[in-house]
């Protein structure tokens, strides 16, 4: 199976109907380029992303772009960022979201990643980190030098304002770790960078 065939299978997936959700896949996936320089993996599209087809339209988006120190145009450029998640559909129900992430990631995510060969992986949030780096302490992962599929990888806390307790307990993330992340992000997206 090639990448286009994979995307077609993913587009036609109806597994979330078992959880009472009408399938609405993240439309930006259609524009994703498997040659993107950075693969970003999070939990699932937010409500805003699901409705608009554009990622991180909520308050988390500007924070994430600020962390990378890039423009929103660069972040939305499918040649630079391939954005995916453990689940591809959004549910307003937290318990259903967890089940979707577990089901969808096992069925689709590893297969999806097998088509990609980026310079850098960025894994956002504890659930995505636990899936890709099982039985590892999340906070330790954030501060460790990581390799995933023979490429540099960073684990980031979720940029949601709801995560403020973690940021308060780990001030080194913003004071020190972000500099490492920015440096590698900029190296990965040059010479196309438009910050």
Q: Helical stretch count?
A: 9
In the CATH hierarchy, the architecture is 3-Layer(aba) Sandwich
Spatial strand order of the main sheet = 2-1-3-5-4
Per CATH, the class reads Alpha Beta
Cα radius of gyration in angstroms = 16 Å
Enumerate the spans where pLDDT stays under 50 for 5 or more consecutive residues.
none
The helical percent reads 40-55%
| Shape call | globular
CATH 4th-level superfamily: Uracil-DNA glycosylase-like domain
The overall pLDDT average reads: 87
CATH fold-level name: Uracil-DNA Glycosylase, subunit E
Main sheet, how many strands, which sense, barrel?
Answer: 5 strands, mixed
Number of domains: 1
- Could you tell me the strand content as a percent range? 5-15%
Structural commentary:
By secondary structure, the protein is α/β, with parallel strands linked by helices. It has a single domain (3-189), classed as Uracil-DNA glycosylase-like domain (Uracil-DNA Glycosylase, subunit E). The protein contains nine helices and five strands. It has helices at residues 3-11, 47-52, 60-68, 72-76, 94-113, 126-132, 138-143, 164-169, 172-189, and strands at residues 38-42, 81-85, 120-124, 146-148, 151-156. A five-stranded mixed sheet has the order 2-1-3-5-4. Strand 4 and strand 5 (151-156) form a beta hairpin. The longest helix is centred in the middle third of the chain and has 20 residues, at 94-113. The protein is globular. The mean pLDDT is 87.
